[in-house]
Amino acid sequence: MSRAVRDRETDDFRRNVPVHAVWEITLACDLKCRHCGSRAGARRDRELDTAECLEVVAALARLGTRELSLIGGEAYLRSDWIDIIRAARAAGMRCAVQTGGRNLTEARLAAAVGAGLLAVGVSIDGLAPLHDELRGVPGSFSRAIDAVRRARAHGIAASVNTQIGARTMDDLPALLDAIAAAGATHWQIQLTVAMGNAVDNDAVLLQPYQLLELMPLLDRLYREGLDRGLLMVVGNNIGYFGPFEHRLRGVGDESVHWTGCAAGQNVIGLEADGTVKGCPSLRTSGYAGGNVRDLRLEDIWNHAEEIHFGRLATVDALWGFCRTCYYADVCRGGCTWTADSLFGRPGNNPYCHHRALELDRRGLRERVVKKREAPGAPFAIGEFELIVEPVPGREGASPAPPVTAATGGLIQLRRRRDGAAAPRDGRVPPQLAPCRACDRYIYPREATCPHCGADVARAAAAHAEVVQRRRALIERLERALSGAAAAASRG
């Protein structure tokens, strides 16, 4: 299986290469999304000029970035967005644009493709009634679908990005039909996060316990999409380590699984005024490492402590369920953005499939409830309370014991205050493999699966036997078909 340019190799981990850069080149936007974390609409004060943007492109190339995603706001509302695409391609980077598609005219799209644009990602959050309501502009669904069709007509990859909120699940099967018919090649799924406008409209948020319904649905739609030439790609806050991880995370490559937040390690984010963060989605306050107008981008990446929160790590910042989770030393609390936006600090992420399954096994579930509103600034967060309660109808159930972490090299995501420098070599994450009895990932040291109780070696042997029989059957069928074809040609 060929690997995408943003896939990380061992050397990328060791050298902390920002393989993927996501750059908000303007905060200007022509939609009014109820769930927009950056509260896009008006331009930022003092957005970078063209010369400064071209220097950012050159600096990213020097750092080893292989893929650049331009976002907003709306990237096409910036008059020099074509110049930025052209410079990125000339520097050897794959360049993509994320858009709502409302005013991605044919002239704009053709100019971008001519400059070297290789992919367009179009945000579609449900069928027309829900999407138009969430995006705040009637007709935005039809414009988005049209953008997908026209991107494919230009011969470039066209993906659809869908934010999943409280009302999205019912639309997903029909949405698959619509985007597959429009020619989408990829479908990226992520959860709506409690930031910015989504805090103001917190009813849009999915509840953590709803992952028990969502994840089997995504697995079914993943398989249906493959049959129609549409590849589902799960975002960084979808998962983790449930029975579908081996299929969804690595898009069929089970050696790929969640390995922790890549912010400041293999991902870099930039705001339109030159502010640099380890991830484009993180709030500015507390996570901004500096500004390219004041420091070289390379110096911010290599030396800013705010960028390095994921590199300076011990167990101390993992808390709540995540502190004792079986997967703690590889997962690191899941998506930093999701947890930090809820609680004001990372290290405990309730939006986790493994966690929801574990709690359900013990007769429990989790909900988040807003306690404090967010300020009106971009990337602002409020405060949410995490409620753990009995599953309705199972209040008298006897809870099962949790599957806890083994002792070992756990890490923290909080910032160090002792002046310690980031380690010279980046951390290469542990490599897990699925238990062949239950498809849940386990560490190589396990003799008995902690999730299903199976004998790991015996389950692996039985699986290998099934695979061998299947291969033999396919070979016999191919020989039979080949012989039939040869006989037909002679006759």
From TrEMBL:
SMART domains: Elp3 (SM00729)
Highest classification ranks of the organism: Bacteria, Pseudomonadati, Myxococcota, Polyangia, Polyangiales
Cofactor: [4Fe-4S] cluster
Gene Ontology MF annotations: catalytic activity; iron-sulfur cluster binding; metal ion binding
Coiled coil: none
One family name in Pfam for this protein: SPASM
Record-annotated Radical SAM core domain positions: 15-224
Annotated source species: Sorangium cellulosum So0157-2
The organism's place on the tree of life at top rank: Bacteria
Record keywords: Iron, Iron-sulfur, Metal-binding, S-adenosyl-L-methionine
Official protein name in the record: Radical SAM core domain-containing protein
